[in-house]
Amino acid sequence: MDVAYFFQILGTTGSLIMCASSIPQIIKTYRTKSADSLSGSYLAILIMGMLLILSYALYRKDIVYSPAAETAGRNKE
User: How far apart are CA 48 and CA 18, in angstroms?
Assistant: First the structure.
């Protein structure tokens, strides 16, 4: 398997996981009739998807947007 193809699969899988990550939160909110807290499953799935997308972006050498990095850049001027 080609390395580029492997990372493309990682990025696509991460995107799909992130899309589906809200499902546990929706189910929890529906069952408890309250949106006071976040589902642990939601957070775990979301982080897993984000890590897959991040690995794809780093492989492609894409610039990953970070508000903290942008703010730090402004403070140096």
Answer: 8
